[in-house]
Amino acid sequence: MAGLKVHIISLFPGFFKGPFSCGPVRIVQEKAVLKVEIVNPRDFTDDPHGTVDGYPFGGGCGMVLKPDPVFRAVESIRQEKSHVVLLSPQGHSFNQSVAREFSQYQHLVLICGRYKGIDERVRTELADDEVSIGDYILSGGEAAALVIVESVARLLPGAVGHEESVTTDSFSSNILDAPYYTRPQDFRGNSVPEVLLSGDHAAVRRWRRKQALLTTAQRRPDLLRNEILTQAERQFLLAKLEKEITNGEEKRDQER
């Protein structure tokens, strides 16, 4: 891989100084595997005041980010193999699968919206893709750009010391990860599961697989829809979940 270049289109370049100077993002930039640059649309305006927003046609509160400075900013750095992404609440959900896809591009352009919104023509005529990082409100797309760059950077060569840890993270296999423990072996009466101390690597792998499935079933059951389970894994989950339901009912009966 020749390396990934990311341009972030943002009115607030200072937003990114701290986060991009530490962790995996810093490491892959130092290794020239990733290069991140911020482009300010305000530098591409026609008037001396650097106006980038306007009132919405049809009325309504708030201001709308104008299309012309955004188009010019993107066109100043767009290449033949660029993938231009608009960050907005209307986009499809960003997840680990999308992060892997983005890590394969040579050039990503992330457009950060602001104010009430961004002119619709940016979405229809400029962007190749539209992504949201969640169903909540932010002041702009800068935080979303941080999330995406951090997630993608971890997938690049040399980002982490043990690359196996990237492939075993939650969501890398479309389910949540198993619980982890470190020293001390006993902490305030809570001991590390014996199987993790056994030295039996096959048993540890089986335990982690079961715990990952159980955690996913308890917290994000939607992720199991596309997971292929063995008969033994199905029986394990059913037994565990039935026990939890029974225990919950007994607890409620005692509290009445």
UniProtKB/TrEMBL annotation:
Domain of life where this protein originates: Bacteria
Entry's EC annotation: 2.1.1.228
Keyword Transmembrane: no
Domain called tRNA methyltransferase TRMD/TRM10-type: residue spans: 4-225
GO MF terms, alphabetically ordered: tRNA (guanine(37)-N1)-methyltransferase activity
GO biological process entries: tRNA N1-guanine methylation
Assigned keywords, A-Z: Cytoplasm, Methyltransferase, S-adenosyl-L-methionine, Transferase, tRNA processing
Classification via SUPFAM superfamilies: alpha/beta knot (SSF75217)
Catalytically driven reaction(s): guanosine(37) in tRNA + S-adenosyl-L-methionine = N(1)-methylguanosine(37) in tRNA + S-adenosyl-L-homocysteine + H(+)
Annotated binding of S-adenosyl-L-methionine, by residue: G113, I133, G134, D135, Y136, I137, L138
One Pfam family cited in the UniProt record for this chain: tRNA_m1G_MT
Compartments where located: Cytoplasm
Oligomeric and partner information: Homodimer.
PANTHER family: TRNA (GUANINE-N(1)-)-METHYLTRANSFERASE
Family according to the record: Belongs to the RNA methyltransferase TrmD family.
Biological role stated in the UniProt entry: Specifically methylates guanosine-37 in various tRNAs.
HAMAP family reported for this sequence: TrmD (MF_00605)
Stated name of the protein: tRNA (guanine-N(1)-)-methyltransferase
